[in-house]
Amino acid sequence: MKPFARPLAAAALLACLIAAPARAQEVKAGDLVITQAWSRATPGGAKIAGGYLTIENKGTAPDRLIGGSAEVSDKIQVHEMAVNNGVMTMRRLDKGLTIEPGKMIKLAPGGYHLMLMDLKSPLKQGDKVPVTLEFEKAGKVKLSLDVQGVGAPGPSGSGGHMDMKDHSGMKK
After folding, report:
1. 3-class DSSP state for residue 124?
2. What 3-state class would DSSP assign to 82?
3. Rounded to 5, what percent of the chain is helix, strand, coil?
4. For site-directed labelling of 109, which of 12, 20, 148, 164 has its Cα 20 to 30 A away?
5. How far apart are CA 162 and CA 82, in angstroms?
6. Burial, 61: exposed, middle or buried (Cβ in 10 Å; 0-12, 13-18, 19+)?
7. Helix or strand run (H / E) with residue 11
8. Residue 147: burial class (beta carbons within 10 Å; 0-12, 13-18, 19+)
9. pTM (two decimals)
10. Could you tell me the mean pLDDT of each successive run of 10 residues in the chain, 172 residues long?
11. For residues 45 and 33, what is the distance between their CA atoms, to the nearest angstrom?
């Protein structure tokens, strides 16, 4: 082995090991590609949790996220949080969330998100929570939410800046 080859191989191996945790699960369903699925740990007694992910529509027709289910909660709804006239509001999207062809939608704290309603047990950091999302065209899609810390801004340290304690105090 040449003198420079061993350090170069070691550096390449180290780069792969460091990058591995950053690679999130990618789930394909029809024309949709779902990545960066995560949630936050919940304090004991919490009855709701948020779910966040990115959905890309690589097709030529729109699809719609209409809800979902999980063993850890009674139901999953699609919600939107927004600030209107200085007041933060949250509402259920009764007709779901449309993902237009060629577009990407990010469900993140402070915007569109999943609401896991009536939790049966707390979400703990490090857990992988299996959920089934339901789309109008792609149908039912199984994936897991990677549970981050209570105040985590995102799966890789990026994203919104809203704490779960702010969200859990809102009325359903």
Report:
1. coil
2. strand
3. 15, 45, 40
4. 20
5. 12
6. exposed
7. helix 5-19
8. buried
9. 0.76
10. 47 36 73 97 93 98 97 96 91 96 96 97 96 97 96 66 37 34
11. 34
pLDDT digits (tens, 9 = 90+) for 73-123: 999 999 999 888 999 999 999 999 999 999 999 999 999 999 999 999 999
Return d(Cα 77, Cα 114) in angstroms, integer: 6
Our measurement of the distance from residue 140's CA atom to the centroid of its chain's CA atoms, rounded to an integer in Å, reads: 16
Minimal CA–CA distance to 32: which of 169, 136, 165? 136
Contacts of 169 (CB under 8 A, 6+ apart): none
